[in-house]
Design goal:
By secondary structure, the protein is mainly β. 0% of the residues lie in helices and 51% in strands. Strands 2, 4, 5, 6, 9, 10 and 11 form a seven-stranded mixed sheet that branches. The protein has a four-stranded antiparallel sheet with strand order 1-3-8-7, with no helix packed on it.
């Protein structure tokens, strides 16, 4: 059974940091490109970052320079280090691998 389980979300002040994690199981993790997406209330889901099997990374322009995606193929995990957070980063963040999605973890940036 495929599972993607996100953790690490929470409430943080503007300018703060959070580290999200995605724990994967039930599929061959190192065969998949892994991504983070987010969805704010009333808005469409949007791409945040991707790390492909070879380790090359891609970022949405809105997070470039602030967020860092990484993966550990030995542990079947993917992380998203988020720095200099802004109120507009507030959203439900979800982990993606191909057709598989996690349930998401809420990130709220507010003073």
């Amino acid at each position: 059974q495929v599972q993607l389980v996100e953790s690490g979300g929470g409430l943080v002040q503007p300018g703060g940091s959070l580290r999200l994690s995605c724990a994967a199981s039930g599929f061959t993790f190192d065969s998949y490109d892994m991504s983070w997406y987010r969805q704010a209330p009333g808005r469409k889901r949007e791409f945040v970052a991707r790390i492909i099997r070879l380790g090359i990374t891609y970022y949405a322009d809105s997070v470039k320079g602030r967020f860092t995606i990484s993966r550990d193929n030995a542990k079947n995990t993917m992380d998203l280090q988020m720095n200099s957070l802004r109120p507009e980063d507030t959203a439900m963040y979800s982990c993606n691998a191909g057709v598989f999605w996690g349930q998401g973890t809420q990130v709220t940036v507010s003073s």
